[in-house]
Amino acid sequence: MSPSPTSTDWEAGLVLRGVEVGPVAHGGHFVARSDGRVVFVRHALTGELVDVRLTEVSKRFARGDAIAVHRASPRRVMPPCPVAGRCGGCDFQHVEPAHSRELKRRVVAELLGHHAGYEFAGEVAEVPPSPLGWRTRMRYHRTADGRPGLLAHRSAEVVPLPEGGCRIADPAIADPPAGPAGGEVLGVAASDGARFVGPGDDRPVVEAVRDASYRVAANGFWQAHAGAPDVLVDRVLDGLRPQAGETALDLYCGVGLFAGALAAAGASVWGVEGDRTAVELARENVPGARFFAGDVARRFDRLPKRASLVVLDPPRTGAGAAVMAAVARRRPRAIAYVACDPAALGRDLATVGGLGYHPVSVTAHDLFPLTHHVECVALLEPK
Ligand SMILES: C[S@@+](CC[C@H](N)C(=O)[O-])C[C@H]1O[C@@H](n2cnc3c(N)ncnc32)[C@H](O)[C@@H]1O
Predict the structure, then answer these.
(1) What phi, psi does 10 have (nearest 5°)?
(2) What residues does ligand 1 touch, defined as CB less than 6 Å away?
């Protein structure tokens, strides 16, 4: 093996030979060092000896992909998808599924400990269907010759689907037809049926959760894993135990998934959501609740000054300090924070910890099998 060039020569495209791979880090990377510099490596595993092609080089660190494995981890498996590694959709296809949950557990524990001083002692729970056929929402792109595919990692390149279609998609939407070059097509597998959605098709779909049904725009937000709505609603209700007549806020409410469950328990519910179409559908889905469209941080003026219960389900960036402070000012007896990024959750827990709320439990759920993503639910109460 020829020695790696010194780090001053590094640039994207360069291959580092014989790199020892260290611990897992957030974002599906593994930490390695070469010539005194940190390299975040994808498609590797702790303990492996790999060659890394650099994809990004900055002054402080570099990123790269493992392109050859000289010493494999016993946890490495043959990816179920032949385009794994090229397609940007799954970054943990090469990892034994049970071990991928252990890797996510380590990341959650590290981030919640680092940001919020919280000791996460739980596991990442498997949620059926898993690890294949779980995704009910797919955004496909078409190649220049009209074949359906998915985007490569951080790229506009379309990687054509393999024969048999996408392995993590619900089988009914795994293999879209060829179509116009360069276009997009959505695959949506909802409770009322599965279909491919092209431009101009804005018919909503219907999702059933417990005894309720929710109309959702075909291109609007809905929890992507088939098992997610039930798991998350159960967790939120078990944690909050809403009582009839209590005031509850559902922030980042989408089409009203948690609002519907809280209203069914007799709570008086107020929801806020940035997507206007979702707000209109939420009003139909949960007619007894009040919904406001807009940025959560700017809509607190429309909400009650006191609320017994708050659910937050923000996007990947988290809720942020201003929203957490406005939540704490309402003096809820319990908060349920549903988080798709444990780093953002950790930062928001740290903020609200300084305002008198602490997590009484955090659970983690494998709602994105074969990828590094993980969903957490934190339940907070006054200290
Ligand atoms: C993770 S989704 C959760 C939706 C809903 N709770 C559900 O489970 O179906 C986050 C939602 O927040 C909305 N959103 C993102 N940023 C927002 C903001 N600053 N203010 C209000 N809503 C926002 C998105 O449109 C999306 O519907």
Answers:
(1) -65, 140
(2) 221-223, 252-254, 257-258, 272-275, 278, 295-296, 313, 315
Question: How confident is the prediction for the chain on average, in pLDDT?
Answer: 96
Cβ pair 295, 283 in contact under 8 A? no
Domain 7-71 has CATH 2.40.50.140: yes
Please state whether the predicted TM-score (pTM) of the whole model is above 0.90.
yes
Domain with CATH 2.40.50.140 in the chain: 7-71
In this structure, the residue with its CA closest to atom 21 of ligand 1 is 274
Instruction: Output 271-279 pairs: Cβ under 8 A, ≥24 positions apart.
Output: 272/296, 272/299, 272/302, 272/303, 275/220, 275/221, 277/217, 277/220, 278/216, 278/217, 278/220, 278/221, 278/253, 278/254
The protein residue whose alpha carbon is closest to atom 15 in ligand 1 is 315
Once rounded to an integer, what is the mean pLDDT over residues 157-165?
Answer: 97
Residue 93 has pLDDT above 90, yes or no: yes
DSSP result, 271-331: EEES-HHHHHHHHHHSTTSEEEES-GGG-GGGS-S--SEEEE---TT---HHHHHHHHHT-
Percent of the chain predicted with pLDDT > 70 = 98
